[in-house]
Batch of 2 targets.
Target 1
Amino acid sequence: MSTPAAPRRALSARSLLDAALSAYLPLLLAVLVVAFPLVWMALTSIKPLPEIITRTPTLLPLDPTWENYATAAERLPFGRVFANSVLVTAVGSVIKVALAVCTAYGLVFVRFPGRNLIFAGLLVTLMVPPQVALLPNYTLITSLGGADTYWGIVLPGLGTAFGTFLLRQHFRTIPPSLVEAAELDGAGHWRRLTRVVLPVSAPTVATVGLITIVSEWNDYLWPLVIISRPEMMTLPVGLTLLSNVDNRAAAYGQLMAGSVAVIVPVLIVFIALQRHVIAGLTQGAVKD
């Protein structure tokens, strides 16, 4: 009886090893593909120029220095540009999430003719590339005097069809009895939204907020088109200005330093909200 037991144990160990390799090896490879360029960028930002322009590059800096960050701050009004990005991202994200929440609530809990048609229109906008609206938005904003202004950067992107779609799908999973009970207690739409719907939708709202923050912070094309004054530029556009000041290979270190400054705030926000992301993306996947 003891002889057949050993092959079964060996087979079980081999199965576990195969399962671990099949499950974790592709994940590890994907993480390496995504993380390695970021690690290389961060390490390059603290390398002196001779270690960047060399035929024998090394991953770790041999003589680390913060000179690239200091040079980038001298050539670019970094404090003002960083403040511009924070202001545009904060204001734009708050308004976009608020509009998405209110729109999704109206599409689910307010009965009015044509709401399904409106939702279909939102889905259609997801299929249209944002570059299509670039010229009409530029014509409209400049005619209103919005060039080189904060509201000119924020206004065209206030609608978020994806955020509205995600919130609507989640709101449809909320038991109607919760909202009906609040209605019987005399609560209006605003109170139902803030006291009943939002508390049970925090993960989804956090997910929409994270996606919106990343999108606003990394937006490059529209600020590049509507802004021409350096003191009004956001960080992604400021990097272009930095490369234009010195477009030689000597600017690689400063560009890497500026790129790190762009990515780090987004990583901090993601780390703060990551525990809500998976729950928020899956809450609206199935309707009971």
Target 2
Amino acid sequence: MNMRQRKLRNILLLLLMIYSPIGLKAQNKIIMPEFLHKGDTVGIVATARKIDLATLQPAIKLLESWGLHVLVGKTIGKEEHQLAGADWQRATDFQEMLDNPKVKAIWAAKGGYGTVRIVDRIDFTNFKKKPKWIVGFSDVTVLHSHINNMDIATLHAVMCLTVKSATPEAIESFRKALFGEHLEYHIPSHPFNKTGRAEGELVGGNLSVLYSIQGSSSAVDMKGKILFLEDLDEYLYHIDRMMMNLKRNGSLNGLKGIIIGGMTSMNDNDIPWGKDALEIIQDIVKDLKIPVAYNFPAGHIKDNRALIFGKTIILDVTNQETIVKF
């Protein structure tokens, strides 16, 4: 084989690698579940705190207005103290939704605490073969992180409980994300922003939950990623402690960018900490040479815009605005 023939062979091998299914999977590591169409079914489950069927009616009506069918899980209306039934009941309900071929998306009814108690009971074998959208925020961060580790995308968006109070912008972003329409956000600049441009896979969620799963199989690898963080009802020194943990364990070192969402209803001690949540974060990340965007509309706020975790995004932080393109 002469030089020209070898070059031709190498070009053909490269083209096969790029355009074959194996090559495509290698280049596009994250698997995107199929987007929804009218007539598809969405399952609603409670993986954490209890909730009754009456409270779900605004969420059910919303899905039906989009032409979707709703399958209400067995955990709705169940009760074991704070939780929507015993661990095995919540795990079984979630498992049945995962394995039901008619269900195209699973929407968390409510957050609180409890998802971490069931995640290790779940068999994701069928889910990996045919992924579906897992939707929610707050305590659902456990599932986002655990599933993103499987190289499958998830949807950080409003939950059933928050539909009634959510802004039209939050609801519309949820619809667009669920049906595969273009998502792009232009957010006013914040004084703490660090300008710059980054492209990378978006991961993250609730800071307290991410902190609590550090060191477990559900802890997401943040290296080379863009990290989103939000939180609710924490003491300010807790925010400092959790951010210091991420800094000291090396999670912040390999990031390409950071997006800070709502830091809502924070608490302080009788002797004040001396900084609010955003000032705490700003102080800890100030030496990072990456773009950082503050006050992004997502988290425990009414304007909770949808974010696709696992998807590569462009984060462009300028002096005028923050742009996030999916």
